[in-house]
Amino acid sequence: MKNQLVLITGASQGIGHALAQLYLQNGFHVIGTSRSGKIDISHPAFEAMSLDLTQMDSIKEFEQYFSNKGLKIDQLINNAGIGPDLGFSFPEENSFDQTFDVNVKGQVFFTEAIIKHLNKGAKLINVSSKMGSIEQCVGTDSVAYRMSKAALNMYTKILTNRYAGQYQIATLHPGWVRTNISGDNSKGRYSPEESANMIYQFVSSNFKTGIFWNVETDSESEW
């Protein structure tokens, strides 16, 4: 794995931070992103980079760095995401816009910009949520978050169709994790490290491209 490069967005905390550390422990080179470009990881095979998914200039500068360096990615994990309306019963305009700017628009245009730097056979993972499943939806809360993850799932399907035979692509539910994505999420079932381990095991497998995977149940999820 020493020559394999993994790119993880949203790596300053939570699942992304735990994933970066886990990949480093397993011999990968890792580039992690945060808005500030600062990530509390000190390792010779780790590089922190600034990326703001709400700013097209930031995405362009990020991609230009890869072009200039001639870097090739073996695994892209789109982990960055926000959920300011999690738990709220009705949508609110500002948080709705913020959620879609990061979770949908930012994810899409970042992926479109960086995908040309993936090696043939590379793995592309979108960290979604079962809250984005239309089939499983029984709640009325978190409107923007649910809709944004449903949109991300659709984008995963589109990428799968477009790049059939070129990349292994999947979207996944990381479990109910104790993170600070929105307010107090301390009652989550899993620590970021536990979720990262489940994600790592899945991504390391020879999974079927184009699936929606629930790492919590270790099975395919309904769309």
How are strands sequenced across the largest beta sheet? Answer: 3-2-1-4-5-6-7-8
The helix content, as a percent range, equals 25-40%
**H and E string:** EHEEHEHEHEHEE
Name of the level-1 CATH class: Alpha Beta
Q: Tell me, what's the shape?
A: globular
Q: Please tally the β strands and state the result.
A: 8
For the report, how would you describe the main beta sheet? 8 strands, mixed
CATH architecture label name? 3-Layer(aba) Sandwich
What is the count of DSSP helices, taking H or I runs of 4+ residues? 5
Task: Tally the structural domains.
Answer: 1
Distance between the termini: 33 Å
Taken as a percent bin, the fraction of beta residues is 15-25%
Classify the fold: give the CATH topology: Rossmann fold
What is the CATH H-level superfamily? Answer: NAD(P)-binding Rossmann-like Domain
Poorly predicted runs: none
* Sheet/helix structural class: alpha/beta
Summarize this entry quickly.
Helix content is 36%, strand content 19%.
List keywords for this structure.
8-stranded mixed β-sheet; 223 residues; 5 helices; alpha/beta; Rossmann fold
Overview of the molecule:
This protein is α/β, with parallel strands linked by helices. The chain has a single domain (5-220), classed as NAD(P)-binding Rossmann-like Domain (Rossmann fold, 3-Layer(aba) Sandwich). It has five helices and eight strands; from the N terminus they run βαββαβαβαβαββ. The protein has helices at residues 14-25, 56-69, 93-114, 143-162, 192-204; strands at residues 5-8, 29-34, 46-50, 73-78, 118-127, 168-173, 211-214, 219-220. An eight-stranded mixed sheet has the order 3-2-1-4-5-6-7-8, sandwiched between helices. The protein is globular and about 45 Å long. The mean pLDDT is 95.
